[in-house]
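Because discrete structure vocabularies remain unfamiliar, we first show an illustrative case, written as a sequence plus integers encoding its fold.
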Amino acid sequence: MTHWFGLSPAERTAAVVALGLPAFRAAQISRHVFERHEYEPRSFTDLALADREVVAEGLFPPLLTLVGEQTADKGRTVKRAWRLEGGAAPAGGAVIESVLMRYPRRDTVCVSTQAGCGMGCPFCATGQGGLRRNLATAEIVAQVADAEALLASGALPGRPPESSRVGNVVLMGMGEPLANYDAVLRAVRALVAPVPDGWGISARSVTVSTVGLVPGMRKLAGEQLPVTLALSLHAPDDPLRDELVPMNKRFDVAAVLDAAWDYARVTKRRVSIEYALMDGVNDQTVRADQLARLLHARGDWAWAHVNVIPLNPTPGSQWRASTRRQQDAFVARLEHAHVPVTVRDTRGRDIDGACGQLAVRQTISEPAPGAAGR
């Protein structure tokens, strides 16, 4: 499928010419898309009427159909469910989810990179459903475009539309981004390319998560893209991590932390160590001590930041979140060891839009205006 969102600047020019249009039309179209956040070519009045139809049919085919929406946090968190267009059976019509979160000074969108996930982490709702297919670059980027359009519509409470832009993109929705490496990398390059070639989002404001696919981590370190790498660790010892993150049997704790350290060393970007606290499973203070030792052993500077995540409930899970007392004790031990640590401000838990909850259920409701739901 050819879509403007998934093409490089050079490919956009070639695509326009292939449709029989002058090459300069590519710059015009990109200004509409990336400067003005206008995604319907039939409204591009600086194109001839006939050309608009050609561009719409050839370069802006439907990608996502909005099939559900839920809101939380007084309307400041919006989870949207999308049905993917096309795709061979059984993956045709697969559903993905994205979450837009409004904060006082920034707007963050969490996007999916796969329909489902093949990593099999048992405490994660997405992992319980298995993998249906990879998303194309355009399908990843379309989720960001929709968030931009939703903010511009003024439908959400918070700052006025003219001062609202997606400032942070986290590739932490459904799927394992590094298992869809090529499409994800192209999406990241489109997001960080300067306007009008791309969205103009700072690379430092883009986060790519992984359960620890070491080859992908090392490859990403060489891309000269200073994005934030988020490593879903969840346990500092192999026996427990084998249970929580099955991929650990292929890339163990030592291997993934070595790759994370190398990423920080090469990019000069601090790695986020994601750690979902589970009551009586991985929340013992002895494990906090062990984690601190592992991090300090790899660098004498604060190359990693531990992001403690209170476990979010999912149907059928045998685990529950740690008590607040145990969470505080775990964090205190890391702080005592001089490990940078914060507790994630969980958003969207009551609509199954928080970490590990995507694809639990969908609630169909009347959607607010957006870009991709057509």
Observations:
- The chain is about 30% helix and 20% strand.
- The domain at 4-59 is CATH 1.10.150 (DNA polymerase; domain 1).
- The first strand starts at residue 64 and ends at 72.
